[in-house]
Amino acid sequence: MSEKILVVFPHPDDEAFGLSGTLAKFVAEGAQVTYACLTLGEMGRALGNPPIANRESLPLIRKEELIASCQAIGIQDLRMLGFMDKTVEFEPKEVVDAAIRSIYEEVKPTLVFTFFPGYSVHPDHDATGASVIRVLQELPAEERPKVLCIGFSHNMVQDNGEPDVSIDITNYLVQKRNAIAAHQSQFQISEMFGNEDIHSEEVKQRFGKEKFWTYSFQ
Amino acid sequence: MIPIQKDAIQKQLDAFANEPLYIHLELTMGAYAAHFDSSKHPAANFIRNAVIQYSQGSIEGHGPYRVGLKLEHGWVYAEGLTHAVEDEDGRIILAGINSEGKLVVAFQLSKQPF
Ligand SMILES: [Zn+2]
After folding, report:
1. Residues B74-107: b if buried by 16+ CB within 10 A, e if exposed
2. Average pLDDT of span A27-34
3. What distance in angstroms lies between residue A129's CA and the mean position of ligand 1's atoms?
4. How much is the pLDDT for A196?
5. What pLDDT digit, counting tens, does each position of A164-181 carry?
6. A90 touching B (Cβ < 8 Å)
7. Which CATH architecture has domain A4-214?
8. Alpha-carbon distance A85 to nearest alpha carbon in chain B (angstroms)
9. Is any Cβ of chain B less than 8 angstroms from the Cβ of A191?
């Protein structure tokens, strides 16, 4: 049976770096992917270089970039939840939990991707991961889907060990590159991949694997 | 000023919810930022005695702290807060003080104008 995947992140572009190759691979294998993106990253400082956005146009531009990134990956179902960038941690927990719970109940995923709470640097990342974990913690253990987390704080490996899941995405580097390139107000794609051929050994070495930590519930 | 005690500030924020308040919010890099380091782009702003009302306010983080207030049509946000004033008039007076002892950010709420 192919996976039903729910991805929950707060910012457009969170999907592009950490797991776009993995998602593209699952989609190629028949998975159905729902991506719940909590904000539009509207408080971002990067406006493109030279600027292609301003403080007021940024949300619309980032929304279009998000849609383009999802198309590049093959994500079939994108939900934009309408929270504001930088404010997820200040929302009443029950409000965020309710938004995520309603998508969970509708989708009933077999696999969930989110940020590892407490180890994901940006407060929106931590608050989003914490909400996903709270919602899934409520479920009986036998109903709970597997949760794979991304965490990148300096103490992540020290406290949680090495990631236990590593996905080979060398055949999906084009999708990953295109997903990142879609966020053109945020990144210069050439700075990341250089002018390297996407199929070069160096790019495969640097970007060929995406790694995750399986979340263990108490 | 004393180091922020998170629980005490959260109690004050809860007590101030759902009523009109005067806010002072300020961010400053200092007027000499570019003089000492030409790569710096000096910027500053403040808003003083604007009236706001929030439904939900909280302080987050482990220090420096962040504060967010949810308004009817938007948000107030401040990051980098380290110190608080024990204020006789019950006002919330928070500041972010850098390693040189200088004010970088100020977040203040009061029922009376500052
Ligand atoms: Zn992010």
Report:
1. ebbbbbbbbbbeeeeeebbbbbbbeeeeeebbbb
2. 98
3. 11
4. 65
5. 999 999 999 999 999 999
6. yes
7. 3-Layer(aba) Sandwich (3.40)
8. 10
9. no
